[in-house]
Amino acid sequence: MTAKPAGKLEGKVAIITGSGNGLGAECARVLASHGARIGVVDLQLAAAQSVAAEIEAAGGQAVAVQCDVADEAQVQAMVAAVVARFGRIDVLHNNAAVLHAEQRAGDRDVCNVTVEAWDRAMAVNLRGAMLCCKHAIPVMLEGGGGSIIHSTSGFGAQGDQTLTAYACSKAGLMILSKSIAAQYGKRNIRSNALQIGLVENPHQQKHMPAELKQIIEDEHLTPALGTPRQIADTVAFLASDESGFITGHTLVADGGFSSHVPTLTPIRGFFEKVGSNKM
Predict the structure, then answer these.
(1) CB 148 within 8 A of CB 191
(2) Where are the alpha helices (DSSP H) in the chain?
(3) Residue 207 burial by CB count (10 A; 0-12/13-18/19+): exposed, middle or buried?
């Protein structure tokens, strides 16, 4: 009988924060399908348990851990729980972020950002990632190295009309990633940011007006928005040895949204109207 080929993450242990639903849950499923053992970490324990159970039902290994990543004591306990179960940490995917409806309501243009929304964005999105790195990296070093992936956003690279605190927290993640790459690269720790565009994700988009979603989709260069699986495949690549020569980098997975001049869509419409792209 032919043995099943080893996955590209076989033998590795991955922590994925915010993986009880949405993109994080898909990343947990996909990394597990490549052979990784998964620490499914989420603020909501029941959600984490559901994803972990799904992974184990498919033949993988996972442990669910409840954690508020903004709380250092909880992060320490979470890392310890994953190590107690699997013995090592090879991959850390800092995916957790706060962006629920109440947070969005308090995070708009800079004159209409509440201090509470600002502080919560920084605490979860940026401090949470820093704390996870602070406590996971020593375990990675003991095991010979590892890969860290930080989920960031175009909001962190380009100015926009709203979500000021979210944008600043995501911009901070990009330099945190580069700092870690510089500080620990010679000890075999890689760190990369993943700038994610709008994908078909009902968990995050349930409050987004259809008109606004269409405006954003029109600025993509791909025929349609991305899928959670496409993002998860990219995370799996960055987690694996296939990306072993990539570190200190921000990889953009946004369907070309951030790659073009801001007038592209109206100019495309103009050329279609006149029947030529001759200027």
Answers:
(1) yes
(2) 22-33, 45-57, 72-86, 101-106, 115-121, 128-142, 164-184, 202-205, 210-218, 228-239, 264-274
(3) exposed
Q: What's the mean pLDDT in 142-165?
A: 95
User: How far, in Å, CA of 38 to CA of 242, rounded?
Assistant: 19
User: What pLDDT, in 10s, does the model give residues 91-134?
Assistant: 999 999 999 989 999 999 999 999 999 999 999 999 999 999 99
Question: If you average pLDDT over residues 141-156, what whole number do you get?
Answer: 97
**How does pLDDT run across 222-266, given as a tens digit for each residue?**
999 999 999 999 999 999 999 999 999 999 999 998 998 888 888
Cβ atoms of residues 238 and 147 within 8 Å: yes
Active-site residue identified among 86, 118, 155, 166: 166
d(CA 30, CA 49): 17
Of 155, 72, 158, 154, nearest to 107 (Cα)?
A: 155
Tokens matching residue 246: 């990539």
Of 60, 83, 78, 56, nearest in space to 68 by CA: 78
**Using H for helix, E for strand and C for coil, what is the string for 227-265?**
CHHHHHHHHHHHHCHHHCCCCCCEEEECCCCCCCCCCHH
Kindly indicate whether the domain formed by 13-274 is annotated with CATH number 3.40.50.720: yes
Supply the pLDDT for residue 4.
59
What is the 3 state secondary structure string of 74-103?
A: HHHHHHHHHHHHHCCCCEEEECCCCCCHHH
Tell me whether residue 166 is one of the annotated catalytic residues. yes
Would you call 84 exposed, middle or buried from its count of C-beta atoms within 10 A (0-12, 13-18, 19+)?
A: exposed
Residue 226: DSSP 8-state: B
Cα separation values, 157 from 240, 246, 252, 257, Å: 26, 20, 11, 12
CA–CA distance, 151 with 255 (Å, rounded to integer): 16
